[in-house]
Specification:
It is a single chain. The chain has about 150 residues and is α+β, with helices and mostly antiparallel strands. The chain has a single domain, classed as Nuclear Transport Factor 2, Chain: A. It is built from three helices and six strands, in the order ααββαββββ. A six-stranded mixed beta sheet has the order 2-1-6-5-4-3. β4 and β5 form a beta hairpin. It is elongated, with a radius of gyration of 16 Å. The model has no long low-confidence stretch (mean pLDDT about 95).
Amino acid sequence: MTPQETIDRIEIQDLLTRYCHAIDRQDWREFERLFARNAMLDYAAFGGPVGNRAEIAAYLKQVTSAMRGTQHTISTSLLIVDGDAATARTAGQVMMVSANETSDDRVCFVGLWYRDLLVRTECGWRIQSRMQERSWMHNAPPVAAL
């Protein structure tokens, strides 16, 4: 592995990590900066929309504002870098706290894969396309369990 390949991998891993932090901090400006200008995102695996970065930010803002808390984590990225482009398949785990029927905490656990195409831009690595791939859910509210 060349020094540049090592740097690319570290920068891409940092980008993927910043995605998790942006959502959990509800920092939608930072969220949008993680994506290329013409990025397309597919969140249909869990009933969400397919859209551009602003449309997905608006959707996630609505979803997370209804939650008492969220925590997004990632692990085990399979990353292939080819010059100024890369692909990644990354395991994601999401914990979301909402209220159940009696206003007690309901913690939902979600396992998914992020399927990404990444590109090197003048501002560094950015996500060009992202698709969520459903893996599992535990303790989901009835509307999300479909």
